[in-house]
Automatic annotation (TrEMBL):
Coiled coil: none annotated. SMART domains: Cyt-b5. SUPFAM superfamilies: Cytochrome b5-like heme/steroid binding domain. It comes from Culex tarsalis. InterPro entries: Cyt_B5-like_heme/steroid-bd (IPR001199), Cyt_B5-like_heme/steroid_sf (IPR036400), MAPR/NEUFC/NENF-like (IPR050577). Residues 173-247 are annotated as: Disordered. The lineage of its organism: Eukaryota, Metazoa, Ecdysozoa, Arthropoda, Hexapoda. It comes from the Eukaryota. This is Putative membrane associated progesterone receptor. GO terms for cellular component: endoplasmic reticulum; membrane. The chain crosses the membrane at residues 29-50. Pfam families: Cyt-b5. Residues 73-171 form the Cytochrome b5 heme-binding domain. Keywords: Membrane, Receptor, Transmembrane, Transmembrane helix.
Length: 247
């Protein structure tokens, strides 16, 4: 007798339904022009997003470095260095010192948030936290600032000294500029002046010479040499006398 085989019942919930769903979606896309356009737009947008993430934006080329400037400025002369001149150099004065802030041009140059300080004495503005242009044509002695405001000026000066290059001094009325050397970094070259050279020469000629021990060497060795040369002759006399007595 043949055995009856149990055949499992099939239901509609299977791979056939998944295939049918995918086929219906593909058919909707293929046979509908609007869906094709939407798919193309989405594909292009995804491609651009992925490409922008993979390729970082190229940094702008650095500006050519300007030659080192060593000079003292009056208030009127400093105004010419606000970044609008052909070389784009920006100078800022803080507490009587002038600094080259060209590398921070995006802050102190034209269009920057602190452009009002470019080519100006920024001491008062930094002390009072006021970003306004100091258009005063005369030297500002800051005598009306409080002790706390002056302390703020000195703190700003330390920050500028650590970050930017010192160019020179902001001259007071009637003050003469300093002559700087190319090798100097922060101070004028005083050793190259004729007065300093003469003082150095005078000091070297008037300095007493150090005593030497050369003359004392012969005095110590001469007696030893004489004694050494006389000693063999006395020995010989004693030996000769003893030999004569034995004879």
């Amino acid at each position: 007798m043949a055995e009856d085989k149990i055949i499992p019942e099939t239901t509609g919930d299977g791979p056939s339904e998944e295939v049918g769903f995918l086929a219906s979606v593909i058919n909707e896309i293929i046979y509908s022009p609007l869906n094709l356009v939407l798919v193309a737009i989405i594909t292009v947008l995804v491609y651009k997003i992925l490409r922008s993430r993979q390729q970082p934006a190229a940094a702008p080329p650095p500006e050519p470095e300007l030659p080192r400037l060593r000079k003292d400025f009056t208030v009127a002369e400093l105004r010419a260095f606000d970044g609008n001149q052909p070389d784009g150099r920006v100078l800022v004065a803080v507490n009587g010192s002038v600094y080259d802030v060209t590398k921070g041009k995006r802050f102190y140059g034209p269009g920057g948030p602190y452009a009002a300080f470019g080519g100006r004495d920024a001491s008062r503005g930094l002390a009072t936290f006021s970003v306004t242009s100091n258009d005063a044509a005369e030297w500002d002695d800051l005598s009306d600032l409080s002790a706390m405001e002056m302390e703020s000026v000195r703190e700003w000066e330390m920050q500028f000294k650590e970050k930017y290059i010192l160019v020179g001094r902001l001259l007071k009325p009637g003050e003469q500029p300093t002559s700087y050397s190319d090798e100097d970094e922060d101070t004028p070259n005083e050793s190259s002046t004729p007065t300093a050279a003469a003082a150095t020469a005078t000091e070297s000629t008037t300095k007493p010479a150090a005593p030497t021990t050369t003359p004392s060497s012969p005095k110590k060795t001469t007696p030893a040499t004489t004694t050494t040369s006389d000693a063999p002759s006395k020995v010989e006399e004693v030996v000769a006398a003893a030999a004569g007595g034995d004879g």
